Amino acid sequence: MPRFFIEGISPKPGDRITLSEEDSRHVSLSLRMKRGDALTLCDGRGTDFGCVAVDFAGAVTVEVVSSSPSAGEPPYRATVFQAEIKGDKFDTVIQKAVELGTAGIVPFTSSRCVCRPDARDADKKKKRRERIAL
Fold first, then answer.
1. CA 47, CA 67: separation in Å to the nearest integer?
2. Cβ neighbour number for residue 71 with a 10 Å cutoff
3. What is the per-residue pLDDT across 35-70, written as a single tens digit (0 to 9) for each?
4. Domains by residue range for the chain, with CATH
């Protein structure tokens, strides 16, 4: 079942939620979901919300059917410390670490690092890495 993340809200069964523009496009165009199809919303704090798509006018609206503790979250909180590496290899490290259930990834530069991050691109890289982790 497709999973999407929501921030800042704690819905109850019966509530309706409008998905973000990006998620709405993914649900309707990529996944080709229809009215009545099920999906899961995650609040990032350990709760999953079972939902049903109810409206596709503009943005996708879903209705919350149930809530339960997240079964996908591991019982531990692991943090990965990864030295900066060249190219897009760091993106792969982020992807795989999140798939394994890590709670955080801390990039650092050591004396042996070949890659030296540019301060001008730091904000851009951070946003890209956050999207990959999500």
1. 7
2. 6
3. 999 999 988 777 889 999 999 988 999 999 998 888
4. 3-69 (2.40.240.20), 79-124 (no CATH)
Q: Is the dihedral of CA 79, 73, 67, 131 positive or negative?
A: positive
Residue 119's Cβ-side half-sphere holds a number of Cα atoms within 13 Å equal to 0
Contact 95, 132 (CB under 8 A): yes
- How far apart are the C-alpha atoms of 20 and 24, rounded to whole Å? 6
C-alpha angle 64/67/73, rounded to 5°? Answer: 125
Instruction: Indicate yes or no: pTM above 0.70.
Output: no
